[in-house]
Amino acid sequence: MVSTLLIVNRADEFKIISYTKNILTNEVNCWFVHDTVGYWLNVKAFLFKIYVFIILNYFLQLQKFCESKTRKQKLEQVLKSFFRIVFGFDVEMVDIRGDRCAILVGGSTAPGINGVISSIVIQCTEWGIVPVGIRCGWKYLKQGLTSPDYHKPLAAQDVTRVHNRGGSILQTSKQQLDSKMDVQNTMRALQHLKVRYLITIGGTETAFSAHKLAQACSKARTNMFITHVPKTIFNDLPLPDNCYTFGFSTARELGVKIVSNLCTDAKTMGRWYIITVIGARTGHLSLGIGVASAATLTLIPEQFEHRRPKG
Predict the structure, then answer these.
(1) Domain boundaries in the chain?
(2) Where are the transmembrane segments (predicted)?
């Protein structure tokens, strides 16, 4: 139990109120000291209003002196603690006055995603742009959802040690912008989030969705710039010669180790192994593994282009 005194003005006269706060139940009760009967009142709402008024007034005065980044970070921590103690939930503080850059990951996972996210966030911070991570790719944006549950602000201290971690800290989804309604919902959701720059990370399907969104933004004359970072272990995006998508080299190296071991076993035991490698509609990964591991035979889809059914 914690007790204190509070002076309030009621009915044109000052009265001293003593109240107790139960730490476990968070219940505040008070009574008038001068009353002989001792009216037992529950003034939780009244005391809460006074408390909020004092705290907010203090924050407004404190904000005037927060000009440096260090002081702004301290103020943000104080505000977060205040909302956590008073309201019981965490909030994310985002400066919407500056340009915001949204980062989105679509498609399957690939090695190096977190490294790309880390580089983007650090560079945006240096340029004074606020980076925002979009959770689960296009999944929630295409529905027009902009709740804090579906996006989060990113800071340099959040991504300095994630570059060597697998997967994606923003998660990912294979859902794409399949209809005009999906594109419109996504554009409006990004506008609601005050996003000026959008960086998408993904393969061919994610790139195509980003292209459709860019066309819609151009027609609507919105001030939004969209950039795509090619990510796929299939290496099936039209890139310049000798330029690989990140994730491809790592998948190829891992595949070479496995196939090389199987080649040794096959020679030792006099057996044949048939190995299938994923690659969507291209054989870049299969060919890279087969050549590097000195496999006896490597078959890729491009060899049978004339046999593929048209349409």
Answers:
(1) 1-42, 49-93, 100-230, 248-307
(2) 39-60
